[in-house]
Amino acid sequence: MPTFTTYDGTELAYHFKGAGEPLVCLPGGAMRASAYLGDLGGLGAGRRLILLDLRGTGDSAVPVDESTYRVDHQVADVEALRAHLGLERMDLLAHSAGGNLALLYAAAHPDRVRRIVLVTPTAWAVDLPVTAEHRLEAARLRAGTELYDRAIEAYEGILGGGPDGDEAWEAAAPLFYGRWDDAARADWAAGAEDQNEKAAGAYAGPGAFDPPATRAGLRRVEGEVLVLAGGLDGNPRPALAGQLAELFPRGAVDVQPDAVHFPWLDDAEWFSARVERFLTSGR
Questions:
Q1: Each residue's pLDDT tens digit, 193-207
Q2: Helix 98-108 to helix 71-85 angle, to the nearest 10 degrees?
Q3: CATH code at 14?
């Protein structure tokens, strides 16, 4: 397991999957260990995936100063990884809450990114929040079977301020996947084990974001950017993903049909082919 030492002396781990041109991958959660990304639906067949365990997750060390879990402090970790790998410019992929880290990194180091893939990203860093209405709009697209009607009812309760314990979230879980199959169940179960909850609570804490400054920084990104949304995802809805893409000079949005928040699990072939095409040709 390779490691490197970042700016404050914390030892961080990363993992290789596949072979080919390097692609640095930032996990979501927030603050979930990178193992859940797997090989991103077979994307490793043509890319050497470099999966970073963020500080305090997976095989990475817990920092002495736990205030550094806040996402803006972790920008320097990504830059330290780039330097450690000896990459002048890098292709970068980020999932979900990891999208905020990628946005902050790109704004701070626009000359260090070649192409960026933001997979079902949250975008608190640029003040594009996902609302309860967005989430429920997507959830209600699944109505019509006992499984999803029960899931929608549970999710409405959670978002409306009702019970949000394990039982309610278990009932709502099928809404976050295109198919509620063994792979989806396994991912859901793993999520409870591989997330650093303390770190997740600090990730988007007070002072983490300066949206006007970040938006200005993103306008300096010359590389191409793909924002990939799921057609059935509420976090974000495709329209919000499109607004995020518009913040980049060379941003584009695409929508994976019938996918939700983990699109490589929903249709691995579609996902890996779409991302590989973008990384190869920018289209």
A1: 899 999 999 999 999
A2: 70
A3: 3.40.50.1820
